[in-house]
Amino acid sequence: MKLKSINTYLILLIGLVAASCEFDNFEEPKSTLSGRIVYNDEPLGLRSNGVQLELWQRGYDLFQKIPVYVAQDGTFSAVIFDGDYQMTLIRGNGPWMDRTDSIPVQVRGSQMIDVEVQPYFVINNTSFDVNGNSISVTFTLENTNSGRNLEYASIYMGRTMLTDAVRNDGVFRVPMDQIVYGTPITVNVPIPGGLASRSDIFVRVGAKTAGVAELVYSQAQSKPL
Amino acid sequence: MKKFNIYIIALALISAVTTSCDPDYLELEPPNILLDNQVWNDTKLVTGVLSNYYDRLPSHTSLTGGWADFAAYDEAMWSGYSGNDGLNNIGSYGFNRWQIWDYGLIRDINLSINKLNTISTLPDNQKTQFLSELRFIRAYVYFEHVKRMGGIPIITEELIYDFSGDPSYLQNPRNTEAEVYDFIISEMEEIIPTIGNNGSNTRANRFTALAVISRSALYAGSLAKYNSAMSAPIQLPGNEVGIDGSRAQGYYTKSLSASKTILEEGGYSLYNSNPDLGENFYEAVINKNGNPEVIWAQDFLLSADKRHGFTYDNVARSAREDNLGSSAITPSLNLVEDYEYLDGSSGELKIRTPDDSDYIYYDEVSDIFEGKDARLYGTIIYPGATFRGQEIFMQAGVMVWNGNSYDRIESDGLATEYIDGGTLVAAGGPHRSIQEVSNTGFYLRKYVDNAVGASTRGIRSEVWWVRFRLGEIYLNAAEAALELGQTGEALGYINTLRERAGFGANSLSSLTMEDIMHERRVELAFEDHVVWDYKRWRVAHEKWSGSTTNPESMIYSLYPYRVVRPGDPRDGKFIFMKSVAPRFRAPRFFQLGNYYSEISQGVIDANPKIVRNPFH
């Protein structure tokens, strides 16, 4: 009987030891790198998950990028280990001129960085008003004279902040003859049927540069219908 | 002293055992490995090596490799096992989707060429034949690489490391895209006189090599033309990607002359053995007995246990013989409507009256498809079509007239009965949510075996995978001729092909690039062409733009319903409803970075001379 109780005790002990084992002996990353894609200190509006930044870290056997996706408002963040990284911008990925120099990033605890880019086009001073079945959108399109042509500018309407050329409930292509760089442009856009019955509408203006897949957008704005 | 004695005895024993060995013991031939001089001096064994390489040829979608990806574009969606529903919810195609870097296979081929040249004592003409065939396979492997990755290093010799600690002499930079296409074409041209294998449609012969030229030169020509025509061409500074627009003419000319040689001298002809034109088109692909149209196929044989489960996975639900599987790849309404009516009118199905006030009522569920291009029947099983002698009836539910409008009634099971005693949901669906039954209202016919037992896991199918057939050569010739401004000649090729599908003679009198794109889409559906065609014409990012408002990025379904309206002449007739397929989730999204697939970081780490593809 005594032997049996010792056995029970042993089994319990093994169970305890096993349960208390640390399964993962690596610390998870705790530092946060966050930042914005900026031009003239203003964050650029983009398509959610459309633009990817790359983080590289040398000195380890595994040399693979850490992809960092940029949100629709031009911000990004990544939780990584402390260390010295290099950030690179993929050529032709965003609506800006290629920036071929990598950006050194030192991460010690939390870190904020602004990534300066030179976009081909910028959309400023966007506002819109709802008038019955249509909206009137005013914006200024700046050409930064970076040597690329404008393919088109469009008004995107949707039901969430994540409104862009891919996710939207209505698109209005701004006629090319109305586009004058640097002066306010106003267009009247009918509200698409799918949005008419909703309480809010989200509007963004996007400019497509020829040969670049991603557009530059204004920040999303919403108004009640 | 005693211990010492034991050592002596042990030593003596060991010496006795070792010295008494057969002196040749370490030079015995292994009983389980064939040696180089055995392999390369025996034609049967060399053929065995070749057959291994043929079997390892890369493919994106074929009957065995990657077949599920037929459901990843706009020809079809996935209606099979629900665990694979990711194919209906791709979001955006990954940049590594078409990635390939199979230098293992290229090295094996280079090694074989080397051994044949150095070790083999076979007769010279036999050796030359094998060498030609190996070079054919190698060039074809390069073609499979260049269409996915752009220019890659052309390696034609074994790379041997000297263990000096510096591997940099083994690191080759990428050749340009044009150089790789030129290499493929010139290799094919050089081996044509010596490759032999006349009359074979599973081993390469002269016309197989010409067919590869016909296709690859056409690809190179359209890449040169349409890439340069983009508002910002996709290219790299070293031209690893991007072919100069001025070269288009030359490539088109090469392609056209190769196609013409096949058409004039090949002795092939379009398959025309069955007076039923729909069945005829189906047989043109799958018939293995004296098929005059097939130039090169990957064959399967039941008795050699080389067979595949494509039919088990894709047979129509109501014709399946197994208790599981079926219905995986189901063609979309988009593709069905691409098949024109034989009077030349657009293929859009007539679902509602012209003024859109009411449905159009059909007596039989198959009547709506009457008068269509016979290739529709040969490619797709539509509601009411027959397969294996059995009607594949489809009905999604009933429409009950309530006095003012119709109430749609469906069921959560298959083969169910409505209260009036008639069918509610047919045994073959379609159904909104059940797995392994069509979600689009259509089933696949092309490549699905009509032999008895082929859709069981025990027997499976031996239908072959057609890599090249004469139908494609007609289309290649037509496209190249049109691009070269020889419209009359191009029209001749297209109209010949259309005649086989049931159109009258000279059904087209003018020809545009859109007609060619359309004709390739309907003729070559499910033959692994759509992705590569859209890529080389640089239209993939517009066709699959990732937007729910772009109908070409979405997958549509067509559901037949039986009208329940007692006392009315329309009672018992069929009406149709079109909608986005219920199990389809995310529009197809092809980005500029998809035109050339990503070279993996491991490759670049090992060889820093490799430059990345654009947008990666």
From TrEMBL, chain A:
Residues 1-19 form the signal peptide. It comes from the Bacteria. It comes from Algoriphagus yeomjeoni. This is Uncharacterized protein DUF3823. Keywords: Signal. Residues 31-118, 121-221 form the DUF3823 domain. Coiled coil: none annotated.
Automatic annotation (TrEMBL), chain B:
It comes from the Bacteria. Residues 292-615 form the RagB/SusD domain. Residues 1-20 form the signal peptide. Belongs to the SusD family. SUPFAM superfamilies: TPR-like (SSF48452). Keywords: Cell outer membrane, Membrane, Signal. This is Putative outer membrane starch-binding protein. It comes from Algoriphagus yeomjeoni. It is found in: Cell outer membrane. Pfam families: SusD-like_3, SusD_RagB. GO terms for cellular component: cell outer membrane.
